[in-house]
From TrEMBL:
This is phosphoenolpyruvate--protein phosphotransferase. It comes from the Bacteria. The chain holds residues 449 to 771 of 771 of the full protein. Transmembrane segments: none annotated. It is found in: Cytoplasm. Belongs to the PEP-utilizing enzyme family.
Length: 323
């Protein structure tokens, strides 16, 4: 098994008709880094920094964050590392930060909304990220973006972080790629405008599906409503891909849905060429992608996008997955 892994590690995922597909890792803990490298990840598409915050007894200071981010960037030796700013709330909380009881936490005060309400705490993270960006190709990602004001405020805070570091005479890199998570349905509609503000999109299907279909991702009772192949999900992704193409905005999908072979076929057919996922899935995805034909997948999806029922879509996709 170990041998098979190392054989596959240096193989680049390429469809039969020669389209290269990037496979990157979602990471949370520093221990995920070696796992990602061992499985041949082409960098990090999503570094969930909330785990760093969750493992401290208070907000980690700038240097603690810098040391960790720098270590991740260095270990990936020139491959891009996408660091997402703190994404708490919903189902994740910090023991040292009091969040109010809410009736609908997933639709409440979470993620970028908290960060922008506490700019002092947020700026510490941005400073640490700008410092770590001196160590290699680091990309900065903002979660739960639902309007343009948020992304503009984030960019203003980056400028302030840079100014602070400048004043302290600390080395930093201000010119880094910045991106928005596309995980709220409104962001799909807003994508042409967001594209003018950011360098890349990170499509978060875990949240996008739950918000599109009003089905809590963590509630097993509504699991059958949480349906990645629902026509509305596929149409949303289709729309985002076409905006990304026409605006020249990079797009990486970082939700779990890519780990389902039928969904993977659908996503390749919709034109996604960049995935980030839990690294142990990478060899499996490579095997599937290497057997796919991207133009055949595109033809299947033109058909699938006409269908109104997700079980018909799954049936269609499955019928093309039998080798
Ligand atoms: C997502 O929402 O799809 C995502 C990748 O982020 P998270 O799972 O951390 O919410
Ligand atoms: Mg999310």
């Amino acid at each position: 098994e170990k041998e098979r892994l190392s054989l596959l590690r240096d193989v680049i995922a390429t469809t039969r008709d020669g389209r290269q597909v990037f496979l990157r890792a979602n990471i949370g803990l520093i221990s995920d880094v070696d796992v990602a490298i061992r499985h041949g990840a082409q960098g990090v598409g999503l570094y969930r920094t909330e785990f760093l915050y969750m493992t401290h007894s208070g907000f980690p200071d700038r240097d603690q964050q810098y040391q960790l981010y720098k270590q991740v960037v260095e270990k990936f030796a020139g491959m891009p590392v996408t660091i997402r700013t703190l994404d708490i709330g919903g189902d994740k909380s910090l023991p040292y930060f009091r969040q109010p009881q809410e009736n609908n936490p997933f639709m409440g005060w979470r993620s970028i909304r908290i960060s922008l309400d506490y700019p002092d705490i947020f700026q510490v993270q941005l400073e640490a990220i700008l410092m770590a960006a001196t160590a290699g190709p680091l990309r900065l990602l903002f979660p739960m973006i639902s309007n343009l004001n948020e992304i503009r405020s984030c960019k203003e805070l980056i400028r302030q972080a840079a100014q602070q570091l400048e004043q302290e005479g600390i080395p930093y890199q201000e010119h880094i790629k910045i991106g928005a998570m596309i995980e709220i349905p409104a962001a799909i509609h807003l994508a042409p405008h967001l594209a003018k503000e950011v360098d890349f999109f990170a499509l978060g299907t875990n949240d996008l599906i739950q918000y599109l279909l009003a089905a809590d991702r963590s509630n097993p009772r509504v699991q059958n409503h949480y349906d990645p192949l629902h026509p509305a999900v596929l149409q949303s992704i289709d729309r985002l891909v076409s905006v990304a193409r026409s605006e020249g905005t990079e797009l990486c999908l970082c939700g779990e849905m890519a780990t389902d072979p039928a969904c993977l076929l659908a996503l390749i057919g919709l034109g996604i060429r960049d995935f980030s996922l839990s690294a142990p899935y990478i060899p499996q995805l490579k095997n599937i992608i290497n057997q796919l034909d991207s133009s055949a997948a595109e033809a299947i999806m033109r058909q699938a996008l006409e269908l109104g029922d997700s079980s018909d879509i799954r049936h269609l996709l499955d019928s093309h997955l039998e080798y």
